[in-house]
Every structure is written in C-alpha cells, then in structure tokens.
User: What shape does this take?
Amino acid sequence: MMQINFYSLNLNCRKSQETIDLDHQVLFFHGKVSSGKSSIARLINFCLGGSLERTIAIQKELISVSLELGVGKYKVLLERNAASSANVTATCVDDQGKSFAVNVPVNAALAPVYANKVYSLSDLIFYLLDINVLRVPAKKNDQESSSLVRLTLKNFMWYCYLDQSKLDSSFFRLEDGTKTRSSKEILKYVFQYSTQKLIELQEKLQKKKKERFSKQLTAEGLREFLKKFEFSNEDEINLLETKTKNKLEKAKEEKKKVEQGYTSSTHTVDQLRHSIREIIDDLTRLEQGVIDIDKRIEQQESLKSELVASKFKVAKNQTVANVFHGIAFVNCPDCGTNISKRKVQEDSCKLCLSPVGIDKPEASQQSELIQIDLTERIKELESSIDLHKKALNKSKKEFGAKQKIRRELDQKLQHDLKQYESVFLSNVRSLDNTVSTLNERLKSIQRMKVMPREITKLENEAIDIIKEERELKRKINEETANFVRGEQLIEELEKTFLKIMNDVGMPGVSKKDKVSINRSTWEVNILPAGEDYLRWNFYNAGSGGKKTLFNSCFLLAIHIVASKNNLPLPTFIIIDTPMKNIDKEVNSDIFKSFFDLLYKVASTVLDKTQIIIIENNYIPPDKKIKIDFFHRYMESGNEQNPPLIPYYQGP
Assistant: This one.
C-alpha cells in the first residue's frame, strides 16, 4: 500500500497563521456555507501538486501553505507559495533521523532534481514510497508502438479525493479526453491488471523499438545516400577505388613527363645563353683591352711629357753654359763663398773643380744630338699615342655594339623563358590540382569503405533487437496470462460495490442485482436481477444525488478491496460533500446508512486509512465504534467555531 497520512495543514495568511489539526484517522469538517470547509481539502490537494480554486478569500489573504504528512518511513513537510506555485519545497526526514530538502517542480522538469530519478513532486512521493515511476502507453489501441507517458500522484488522487465540484462526474473523466486513459490505467495497475513488472517490460519494449527504428532508419538513410555516389556496397567502393588509383597514377606520370620535358625543352634557349656567354667573354676582353690601352696611353703621355721636359732642360743647360762661359766667379753663386783665392788646377773649373777642356766643342755637339734624339722620341711617342687612341676608340665602339647585342639577347632570353615557364607552370599546376584532388578522393573512398560495414552492423544490431523484442513480448504475454489474481480482485470489487450500495440503501439497487465491470472499458454497470438488457450505470443513473452516492460508494469499495489485499493505493480518502444533491430531511435513512457504514469500515478494514469528510450536516459515529475521530464546526463570524481564516469577513 501507499502509506500516506496527514498530520497538519498550516496557512500563512496576511494577518495570522492558522493550523488545522489533521492527526486523526477520521476527520469531519462541517458547518455553514463560505466557512472554508472545502478549502481545507483543496489546500491539501494543492500541497500534493494539484490546482487550487482561488476563492476571493484565498486570493486576498493566503500567502503560502504547508502540509505535514507521513509518506512511508518519512516525515515530510511540503511548502507551496500561493501566488507563484510552480514549485514545492519538500523537507524529508526518515525514521533514522536523516534528512534532506529539495525544491521540486509540480510538473516534470527536463532534468532530475534529486537522486537522479526525481523530476517532479509526484516522483518524489513515489521515491519516498520506494515505488518506480509508472508509465503507460499514450495511445489506447497501440500498446507496442505508442510512446509511454508517466502516471502521477494526481492520477491516483482521482480515487482518493472526490471534489465537490466533480463529485457527480465520472471517475474515468470521460468529460476530459486527456485524462480518460490515465484514470483507467490507474485501476488496471491497482487491481493488478497491469503490474509494475508489466509496465517495466512494456517500457523496455518501447525503448527497444525506438532503438531498432533509429538503427533501421539510419541504415536505410545512409544506404540511400551512398547509392547516389555508387557507394552502396563494398564491391562498388573497391571498383571505384581501383579506378581512382589508376587515374592518380596516370596523373602522376603526366606530371613526371612534364617535369622531365622542362629540362629537355629548355634547349631552345640554350643557344641564346651560349651567345650571351660569348658576348660576355668578348665584353670582358674588350673591357680589359680598353683598360690596357688607357694605361699605355697614360704611360706614353707621361713619357712624352718627361722627354719634352728633358729637351727643354738640355736647351737651357746649353744656354746657361754659353752665358756663363769665361766668367771668373769671386764668390760661389749658390752659397756666396769666396772662391777667388782658392787654388785650382789649370784644367779644372774654378767653380765646381771639374776637369774641363780648353775649348769643349764635343759638349756642344752632344747637346745638339740629344735635342735631336729627344725630338725623334717625342714624335714616335705622339705617333704611338695617336695609334693607341684610335685603337681605344675602336675598342669602345666595339664594346658598345657588343653591349647592345647582349641587351637584346638578354631581353629575348627573358621573353622566351617567361613564355615557356608560364605554359610549364600552368601545366604543372593543373596536374598538381588533379593529383591532389585524386589523392583526397582516394582517402575519402578509403574512409567510405567503412560505411557499408557500419550499415551492415546497424542492420545486424536491428535484427538482434528484434530478437530481444520477441523475448520481451513473450514475457509480457506471460505476465498478462498471470492476471488471474487481477480477475479475482475485480470480481471482489464488483461484489463489494454491490454490498455497499445495498448497505447504504442506494435507490434502485437490490441484493439480487449484479455489478459488472467491463475489463476493457472499465465501465461499471448495474444489472437488475442479473439481467444484462436492463443494465444501467453512472451516466443514466438519473438524479444528481444518485450519481453522487454512486461515486462515493464506488470509492469506498475501491479502498476496501485495496486495503484487504494490500494493493498500491494511497491510504487516505477525502470526500467533499458525499451527500451532495441529497436532502437530509427527505433521505435521512441514506445519510445515516452511509455514515454508519463509513465509520464501521474505518474501524475495521480501513483502520489504516485516513478519512476526511466535508459535509454541511454533521452525523457523528456511534459510541460503540472505536475510532480516532475528530470533528470541527466552522461558521463565519463565530469566534468559538471560526472559519478557516478567522479574521476574514467577506464572500
């Protein structure tokens, strides 16, 4: 069983803090209209993740609300803000004193908020009860391929809390299509027409199917994609690889030929290079010749100058000798020394003491010969210089002509090389691109060789998953075949429901009648005297009071069977106005019978179930019945029996 018991409800209002004691097995809240009786049940449901009807009093005065309760072996405090109520703060303490607190969303979050498995408040309650989160197929007629949706505590609340506003509506929420399936799945789960093991097997089957579909779709998509590029199987890829290798080798050979052809084809400019080298040699030779001639001319010019100077010097000496011949020097013309008294030999010069002839006719002749010789030498040098200058001019002209030819050959060589290399580089670049492209294509093909293997691997994995699915289906069928216990429980529910209606005195029901619950639609039918053609149910029960009583009795029957057989159902019942639409004065026997039965089962089979009744009229239990009973009368403006928010005065 899902052991859940309430201890207290705490209201944080603008002007006060109110505590409602809930620590009793049976609680009866009664009183006048607008005293806040129904709000107690709604606030309990609100703390458990339900919605809240925001009455004017709630809107104006309530700030937050908290619920103290026991969940399994834990004591829990649930706190929820009345205004922004998307989250609930839960503080939990186990029987060993270990505690934790967590802020959990009312609706499931995208990521776990606690223990790697708690996504919502409902998950937290299941976690504290040590129950796995329940999931059922989203679609009614597609148990195998439909996605799974989680069942929450809200779904269980349909069989624990009968709200006054929906008390005369169907348990199965047929007026709300989104909840119909979930409400029936809860009954199937509680009465073992759907076990936790079956739900887990179905969940595993769904995961396996999704995994298989994913692998199959991936494999099919990849195979279709590869077909466009002739990659659908390994043989095609090998053939394409061979073709690509052949193309690559051919491109490499062409590139090699072009590179080899570059060396051999350059002979067209080799002759130009040879001519240029010859001209360079000639220019070097001419340049050196010009330098040599320049030096020779320079030397001869220098020699000519010296000869001219010598000629003038000889002529001058002769003139001086003639001028000074026969002069008797008293003093030296150079230093002024008196040389008149110096004894000199007769055949020597008084001035320089050199021996001299008496007449010296040879000196004069020799001077003339020297002059003639110098003149001839000068003429010869002038003639030689002239010849060298002519040779120099010729060499310079030849040098200039050679330079011009060299420039022309250089330009032609550059033009020819540029033109040839441009074509060569273009060809080489094109072949390089081809080789590079084929290399990359070959690498891609080699990588692609793995793809068909991976596709085959995915397909084989999908086949293996099909085997796993078959095994899971077999286990599901085995589990479903074991629903003998579930059939027995449903039969017990049918009998218990009929007995309760008879004990309460449901109009139009007798002990001879039969209750039939459809195992497929879970529709609850009453067969008068067992006759199927006279069947009636909740929808054609007639009066609103009869529908209300029908639901209240069916809820008690569910909890009685669940308690007797330790079935997974929360151990509390909240019924807001079970006698709705039933007049107490006119139907006092029904009132008394219902509450007598309620107190009786509370003291016996439902002794571990907490029951909260909200009703306008108060009917106490018989003194012979021993139960933990508490009642509270509530009336607006009554200080002794105040409403839910004592100070509030308003609608």
Q: What stands out?
A: The chain is about 55% helix and 15% strand.
